[in-house]
UniProtKB/TrEMBL annotation:
CDD domains: RHOD (cd00158)
Organism ancestry: Bacteria, Pseudomonadati, Nitrospirota, Nitrospiria, Nitrospirales
InterPro entries attached to this UniProt entry: GlpE_sulfurtransferase (IPR050229), Rhodanese-like_dom (IPR001763), Rhodanese-like_dom_sf (IPR036873)
Provenance organism: Nitrospira defluvii
Full protein name: Sulfurtransferase
SUPFAM superfamilies documented for this protein: Rhodanese/Cell cycle control phosphatase
Amino acid sequence: MKHNPGFLKRVDAARAQVRECSVSEVKARLDRAESFHFVDVREDREFAEDHAVGAIHIGRGVIERDIETILPDKTQPIVLYCGGGYRSVLAAESLGQMGYTDVVSMDGGIKAWRAAGYPIEKDTSR
């Protein structure tokens, strides 16, 4: 998907405010059984199609509204991802503004996760 220039400018501005990590760093954290929340911020249909094993879903459209109910401890580590690493950057910036102190965006999103051959699953609850 080709993104619009205004969107890319907005993402670049947000990227300067957030931490990012690679898919291999996230996989290593999962392999070490580190405690963190792995959050897919894509749309419902995207999450249902497939997602990283162990991820929970809080869509980008509702994350600011729902995050404090789902993850009330603002100090717990959170790794966000989306399709390609754009929406998760915006979500990470927003959560930082809301007082969350340990939020990271996974660079490359689910596309990079799939390309690396890391485990995915379908949402069977729908």
